[in-house]
Amino acid sequence: MNVEFYLKLLLVVAFGSAFLIYLIGKISSALRDLLAVVTSLVVLVVVSYLYGKSGKVIYCENFLGVPLILRLNMLSWFFSISIAFVGLLSIIFSLSYIRERENTDFYYLMMLLVNAGMLGIVLSGDLVSFYIFWEIMSWSAFLLISYNKGPALAAGIKYIIMSIIGSVCMLVVILSLYANYGTLIIAELVPFIRSSSHGYVLFLLILLFVTFGVKNAVWPFHSWLPPAHSEAPSPFSAVLSGILVRMGMYGFVLVFFTLVGLKLFLSLESNSFHYILAWIGAINIVIPTFIAMLQNDSKRLLAWHGVGQGGYIFLGVVLGSSLSVAGGIFHLINYTSYIALLFLVVGAVEYRTKGIRDLNSLGGLIKKMPITFIGALVGTCGLIGIPLTSGFVSKWLIYKALILEGYPFLAFAALIGTWGTILSLYKFLHNMFLGQLPERFENVKEAPFDMQLPILIYSLIIILFGILPGIPLKIINAIDTSFGFESLNVNIWGIGSETGVLNAVNIFTASIVAIIVVWLIFKSGQKVVLVAQDSNYAAGAYIPKDKYHYTVEFYKPLYRMITPYLRDFVDEFYMKLAGWTQKLCYGVRRVYTGDVGYYVIYIILFLAILILIKVGLKPW
Amino acid sequence: MVIKIIQMVIYPIIAFIIGIFFMGLFRKIIARIHRRYGPPLLQPLIDIIRFFSQKGISHGSLFTLGMILSLAGSLVVLLFIPFGKICPLQNSGGLLVVLYLLLFAPIGIALSGGEAANPNISIGISRKLILALGYEVPFILIILSVMVHYRTISFAEIVKLQQSDTWAIFKWPLVLPGIAYLLILPAMMGMRPFDVAMAPQEIASGPIIEYGGKYLALYHIEHAFSVFITTAIFVDLFLGGGVNIGFFFVKMCVVFILVSFVNGIFPRYRIEQAVKYLWRWPALISFVGLILVKISGR
Questions:
Q1: pLDDT, tens digit, for every residue of B223-241?
Q2: A526 vs B214: CB contact, 8 Å cut-off?
């Protein structure tokens, strides 16, 4: 069996299973669940089998005059495995989460279709297939975002309108490329684009910046993301935030380094184009992470971090140095693992507390849901980038690149973003799992096993890649060198170079020894008594059963200081624009009432004016 | 290798002794400013021993784990900080790792305190995090200007470059970040006028109110380390480290006594005032400093 066969098989399984499962769901829901997991697993196995291989296959000779191609290389394999992995875990998580809802068959259909569409995108070797799969992904994502109806529908519409604008931009690029060069195969386009004028390349890049920027939620195209992420069903939020949004990043990487090429990309606009993009990335880090602090909806808080962490990835990639691109791509996969994990955690809490996402009314759940809490803790540590989680290594790479390339102000933006993350995520953790347990959650149980499993797997990955970052970095280094960067000095324990070494295993060993030592010291002391949460605070006095703990408006002094500066001007502008458009449409509707009588009057009036002109002015 | 391991064992012990000494010295200085006699110099050590022999209360496993994590975090940070010629983990990540490892201690205490539902704790933690956001803005700018000036992210390298030249605080563009660092030092140590997180008179020592027995002992040990760490980082970054442990200790004493004087004479800020101050003067000075460093580096 060769690579070509497997590539075709992958798409057939991915798309075929989606529709098959929809039909089977009409017969038996248990069989449907089983099959959804099995087919996702098959996709994952096939993709992991394809590791290190490359190849291409023409799967449609003549589609409107152009051949459609699938191709595999290190970059697309890297994204494929992430897609297959996140897809599988989200399907497993969905089993319990979605069981009692209506339209479950439809949910699974769309979920698998989104995954299949994303696989298609990263595997497609020409721009037409890229566009087709892109649209499949965008539309099925729309249907999933609006799955919950109500506010979800509004969020979905906001998303799809921006997404369509992006798609139109991509269509213009595709048409323009085809008109100029007569081919849409990526490999054949490369020499043409690299020899064309700077102005034309800039034109293409700016249009594609809109396309991929909307999907990747790059400022100023981010405003669809927070409502869409918070309203979507949680397992899909994990897919949406973890990997679907990052398809935009795949597009950026593909265009910047494969299509345009490193040298041309860095020299655009006398070397300043990528610098401007880097500043957009920096804005993307700082403002969203600070807005996240103000949120009270747990999923919306995470969604804003989705925008913020996207800034780190974007910043790393556009900086265009060997270290920073490696850091950016590594951060992408880390981000995928911990944001997916956190959305699943919120999903589990939502499932057990009957749909409560409000951070002000939760609390104390650590006693009831310890496994979920561990997931939340690892996820938040990863998102902050605490050493020994994978997030730290990728951020370290980006910071180091920024400092050594001489961009201290960009580094400042990136570092201060981390503090925004710490504040908002401590609030997330504290208000959900720590502090006082409200009386109505007395009987909450731990999440079922099929929800715990994905949470634990993600946690393990985050820690594993944090201690042995060499495993993913080897692959990323291969991608890096295929773009024409110099190879990094990657070891299994981290990165070595002349200007600074990172050794995660040393840090890990030191921490373990330190923890053991401290634990021994701790053990040597007197025994402790386990007491109820309020016993020390009340000191024996009566405490009313209501909430007495301080969680609402957790950073109030800070809110008062920074809220005036943290308005989302871009979103306000878009909403105004939407308002004006709506008013215009209402105006038009007043004229086109749908009543035939009015139309007759319009025709008569028009004729009368014509006659008046004819008689009065005699122009003819 | 053997020398390294010996260093790793001895370094935390020396750091602990120095930290405890500073804690005692601090109480003595404050007492003399208040025209009291003050407790004996060894009082903090006596307290710690006493706490170990007393019973305490616990609220669950995270309550313990957070405390252990916090102290272990401080121990790990120590190994990254050059102390005279000693720096056991100098080739494992440099200054950026220190910046992140410093998070372990406060986050450990925050997690530990979180498990107890005591409003004083959560108010204290909320204040501590806001204050940290306040001083991290200038602190990051300061660290960046040092790293950009010396073109390295290795801590040991920065110290070495200063010893072959002059101290960073006497070097022209780095003067400004140095001054800014002096201004934020009390905030980083949680001393007046920035002791909003503990604020014994308002929120009854905030985050540590539920600790008793060995938890409190561990907290005091952690505090000793954090006093050592904060002072040592300043000495390493701006006062050229130390040729040997003796010189290093003398420099640390000077810095610490200076901060204690500030603590002795200023009343407490409110949290907004503290953040406003930190974001205004130290941030401005260090920002200008970073610009100058960037310009002069070209």
A1: 888 888 888 888 888 887 7
A2: yes
For residues A230 and A305, what is the distance between their CA atoms, to the nearest angstrom?
12
Which burial class, exposed, middle or buried, applies to B219 when counting CB atoms under 10 A from its CB (0-12, 13-18, 19+)? buried
pLDDT in tens, A25-50: 888 888 888 888 888 888 888 888 88
A591/B contact by beta carbon, under 8 A: no
Yes or no, beta carbons of A412 and B117 under 8 Å apart: no
Mutate to test the interface with B, among A371, A515, A520, A551 (most CBs of B within 10 A): A515
**CA–CA distance, A290 with A303 (Å, rounded to integer):** 12
Write the pLDDT tens digit of every residue in A444-494.
788 788 888 888 898 888 888 888 888 888 888 888 888 877 777 777 666
Alpha helices by DSSP H, listed for B190-270, are: 200-203, 214-238, 245-265
Size of interface A-B (CB pairs under 8 A): 227
Nearest Cβ partner for A519 among B53, B68, B120: B68
8 Å CB contact between A5 and A103: no
pLDDT tens for residues B69-103?
A: 888 888 888 888 888 777 777 766 678 888 888 88
If one counts every other C-beta atom within 10 angstroms of the C-beta of residue A266, the result is 17
Taking CB atoms and an 8 Å limit, are A500 and B94 in contact across chains? yes
Report the gap between the CA of B53 and the closest CA in chain A (Å): 6
Last-in-domain residue among A221, A256, A278: A221
Residue A182 lies in a domain: yes
Residues of A in contact with B118 (CB under 8 A): 536-537, 549
In total, how many domains does chain B have?
1
Which pLDDT does position A420 carry in this prediction?
A: 85
State whether residue A200 is helix, strand or coil. Answer: helix
CA distance A427 to chain B (A): 9
**Domain C-terminal end among A194, A221, A248:** A221
Structural domain contains residue A158: yes
Task: Print the domain residue range for A611.
Answer: 570-617
